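Input record (one chain):
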Amino acid sequence: METSSTTKTTTISTPAKLYGKDLSEYDEVDVDALLAQLSPEEINILAKEVDPDDSFLPPNERCSYECEKEPTGPLDRKKLIEHINKQALETPDLPENEPYVKGTVRGKKWLPPARSEKDKEVEEGIAIDMGEEYEQALTSATQEEIIDLAAILGFHSMMNQDQYHASLLNKGQPIGLGWDGITKSQQQKVYPMDPPNNTDIEDSIKRVKDDDPKLIELNFNNIKNISDEKLIQLFDALPDNEHLEVLSLTNVGLTDKTALLLAQAIEKSKTLRVLNVETNFISPPTIVALVRSLLKARTVEEFRASNQRSSVLGNKIEMEITELVEKNSSLLRLGLHLEFNDARHRVAAHLQRNIDRIRKDLELRLQFRFFNNLHRKSAKIQ
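The corresponding structure, as predicted from the sequence alone:
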């Protein structure tokens, strides 16, 4: 006969209480009414008991420290530092329990563990047999040759920079350095400054207005005193000019106002092939307007506008530029820093297609001209 017994455990939890009352009884208490009944002194005492890390409190009220002193005036940093230094000098040092004695070792000194005789025998027994030829070569080698060998084997930490590069370039080791040689600083090469751009602004603008056939390239790079009025005169004259092919306006202080006028001039230009407006103060939307103007011109083959006021164009601007470039069949080179890979790859692929198409057209023209000349010569012979 088998008997079985089961034990049932019941856990009774009592509700949490605060000052003898259940917490649920405090839900309907009007806290604002209770705080209104407290005096300022009681509110200060209550504020000191509040958790200063409470995220519901503003940051300036989370610190319980209160300074009751009257302000002494505006902050004078120099006087404050002088007062701190004076206090540091006048404050006596804490007395030492044991005075310092030079050469006295206090506490337990660390000693390396003793090595066993077995480990010493193992290290002494290790030997590398390189053969008599290599042993003789290493024994008779000079210090410079050993340094060259160390550089070839990659032991660059054993030598200085001059020795390492001299070994790689097979220049011969510097004399007198050795293993303890110190690399000395080399004299910097002084390059002459680029000559200033002495282009006559007034005369150049006049030649553009007069459509001078000899003026094919106009370079205003790094001329920083060009006024907006002069630039406006230049851009107004561009649509009627039929000989200018290259226009460089790098670092001339070009802004959005004048750049938009340039975009309008490009749309009406007939011969402009290269346009460079790098290192100016053009915003990304204005760059989009310049790229859009290239669609109507259909003559510009190279456009550069990098290093502007905003170093990052943004995804939206880059996608707009990419779509405009993909619609342009005449553009061959674009000087813009595109951050996103998608825009960069699409622009590069389209420019390559334009170059390939122009190359094929040129080859077809050359072939047609060749066969045309050949047909004429054969007709004359007959």
